[in-house]
Automatic annotation (TrEMBL):
<dbReference type="Pfam" id="PF02738">
    <property type="entry name" value="MoCoBD_1"/>
</dbReference>
<dbReference type="InterPro" id="IPR037165">
    <property type="entry name" value="AldOxase/xan_DH_Mopterin-bd_sf"/>
</dbReference>
<dbReference type="InterPro" id="IPR016208">
    <property type="entry name" value="Ald_Oxase/xanthine_DH-like"/>
</dbReference>
<dbReference type="GO" id="GO:0016491">
    <property type="term" value="F:oxidoreductase activity"/>
</dbReference>
<dbReference type="GO" id="GO:0005506">
    <property type="term" value="F:iron ion binding"/>
</dbReference>
<dbReference type="Pfam" id="PF20256">
    <property type="entry name" value="MoCoBD_2"/>
</dbReference>
<feature type="domain" description="Aldehyde oxidase/xanthine dehydrogenase second molybdopterin binding">
    <location>
        <begin position="158"/>
        <end position="412"/>
    </location>
</feature>
<protein>
    <submittedName>
        <fullName>Indole-3-acetaldehyde oxidase-like</fullName>
    </submittedName>
</protein>
<feature type="domain" description="Aldehyde oxidase/xanthine dehydrogenase first molybdopterin binding">
    <location>
        <begin position="1"/>
        <end position="121"/>
    </location>
</feature>
<dbReference type="InterPro" id="IPR008274">
    <property type="entry name" value="AldOxase/xan_DH_MoCoBD1"/>
</dbReference>
<keyword id="KW-0500">Molybdenum</keyword>
<dbReference type="InterPro" id="IPR046867">
    <property type="entry name" value="AldOxase/xan_DH_MoCoBD2"/>
</dbReference>
Length: 512
């Protein structure tokens, strides 16, 4: 079935809206001691992937040490279109909930929110308590180092002073800065792989996953060339150009599984590596015997002789991760600076600095693109992509006139991304880590920085009006669209500011 874009958007109802109530206990220094969450998830008219959402939300929510954590989650059937999976389903919402709670604690105590975040980062002991076997070893827990390095490199204290100076001298524009960490759990899935060497020496590879722009086939080609090159002690040159990945079907890969969870690339690479190991075991005796007779030989000579000797040059494997290493944690942090125009509600992303623990990247160029793309896509969720429905539940955001996605103008004006090489790990695929979905969650830093800018605008408004209402405690919706930002900054702030410039006796004369 092929649908036009409008029909598709009406039928597929986007991410899941949620209603969250929380009870949180904390000390005067900002340390959270207990958290209870009541969560209602709007699933729409049918199940789809909705039963999996609670797990993803809670796993993402656990990125901070809440002390005692309890939750009550209900998935609700409603009269709106079915909600479905999108990049980091559940994890994105869970991260937002966690940041909203941290913001609430900081606002209540009038503390710096980044201080409260750092105060509630996990120790390795609490990480093991919250994530159990997925926590791995103490040496793998790089988040405190990443968070500290980012804060130091960006010089957050200097930035805070600079932003305060900017806010003091600009009436109609305010800036905010925020540093957000992630702890993102991923799980490796069983994945098949098949490697075949043809008579001409070319190599054909099939894997269970599909290429959808995440660089799967690029990494699979590299792994194939690397693994088959191990027949020679120092590797074999030019094998990469001989590798061709073809899209498998349900006959050639009967247990193909699905492409999801950011781990398909590494699972596919591991299944291909295992298949290549089978082939190298078959080819090595042929190579050794040829070298005794002829000295150094080429790949073409090896394959020609193996074909004559009826060696099976096709190998199929099925990678099944063991229980201990089937899931692991990804760590990263991002600092974002946002400027808000309080007259219009427009938010401009001035700068983002991001550090992500990629393990030993299978392909740094691919992973860098994944991180940058995921982050920008996350900006869309947190700031622009408003999915609206009418009173009957019919989707009205059914095209680009009403549904705004990130554009070239929404990318950070300065975007600095660093891949952290966290070293060798024997239970990872070439010590690598996932890079597809986890960086998406870091876009929460843009939303949090916007909140800080709005807080500065509200503090200014408070100084004009002398209102008894606190300007610091408020709820910022997702997405934080222009009308939402403008309203929170104060729709009547222009008139209030102008009145504050008129001396009181002059004002009385005017009224008389």
């Amino acid at each position: 079935m092929c649908l036009d874009r409008k029909t598709d958007m009406v039928m597929a109802g986007g991410r899941h809206p949620m209603k969250v109530n929380c009870s949180v206990g904390f000390k005067c220094d900002g340390k959270v001691t207990a958290l209870h969450i009541d969560l209602l998830i709007n699933a729409g008219i049918s199940e789809d992937v909705s039963p999996f959402l609670p797990h993803g939300i809670i796993e993402s929510l656990k990125k901070y040490n809440w002390g005692a954590l309890s939750f009550n989650v209900k998935v609700c059937k409603t009269n709106v279109s079915t909600k479905s999976a999108m990049r980091a389903p559940g994890e994105l919402q869970g991260s937002y909930i966690a940041e909203a709670i941290i913001e609430l604690v900081a606002s209540t105590l009038s503390l710096d929110v980044n201080y409260v975040r750092k105060k509630n980062l996990h120790t390795f002991e609490s990480l093991m308590l919250f994530y159990e076997e997925s926590a791995g070893e103490a040496s793998e827990y790089t988040l405190p180092a990443v968070f500290g390095k980012l804060v130091k490199s960006v010089k957050c204290n200097d930035c805070a002073g600079r932003i305060q100076y900017f806010n003091n001298y600009h009436k109609w524009k305010k800036r905010g800065i925020s540093c957000v960490p992630i702890v993102h759990k991923v799980t490796l899935l069983p994945t098949p792989g098949k490697v075949s060497v043809l008579r001409d020496g070319s190599i054909v590879v099939e894997v269970g996953g599909i290429e959808l722009g995440q660089g799967l086939w690029t990494k699979v080609k590299q792994m194939t060339a690397f693994a088959l090159g191990q027949i020679w002690g120092n590797g074999c040159e030019n094998l990469l150009d001989r590798v061709r990945v073809i899209q498998a079907d349900t006959l050639s890969m009967v247990q193909g599984g699905f492409t999801a969870g950011s781990t398909t690339s590494e699972s596919s690479c591991e299944s291909v590596r295992l298949a290549c190991d089978v082939l190298t075991d078959r080819l090595k005796p042929v190579k050794d015997s040829l070298q005794e007779l002829m000295g150094p030989i080429t790949w073409d000579t090896l394959i020609s002789q193996a074909t004559l000797q009826n060696v099976n040059l096709s190998a199929s494997t099925f990678f099944v991760p063991d229980h201990i290493s089937s899931s692991y944690l990804n760590f990263g942090a991002a600092v974002s600076e946002v400027e808000v125009d309080i007259l219009t509600g427009a938010a401009t992303l001035v700068r983002t600095d991001l550090i992500y623990d990629c393990g030993q990247s299978l392909n740094p160029a691919v992973d860098l693109g994944q991180i940058e793309g995921a982050f920008v896509q996350g900006i869309g969720f947190f700031m622009y992509e408003e999915y609206m429905a009418d009173s009957d539940g019919l989707v009205v955001s059914d095209g680009t006139w009403s549904y705004k996605v990130p554009t070239v103008d929404t990318i950070p004006k300065e975007f600095n991304v660093e891949l952290l090489n966290s070293g060798h790990h024997q239970k990872r695929v070439l010590s690598s880590k996932a890079s597809g979905e986890p960086p998406l969650v870091l876009a929460a830093s843009v939303h949090c920085a916007t909140r800080e800018a709005i807080r500065a605008a509200r503090a200014q408004l408070f100084s004009y009006t002398g209102s008894k209402d606190s300007p610091l405690t408020f709820e910022l919706e997702v997405p934080a669209t222009m009308p939402v930002i403008k309203e929170l900054c104060g729709l009547d702030n222009v008139e209030i500011y102008l009145k504050s410039l008129i001396p009181s006796h002059q004002s009385m004369c005017c009224h008389s």
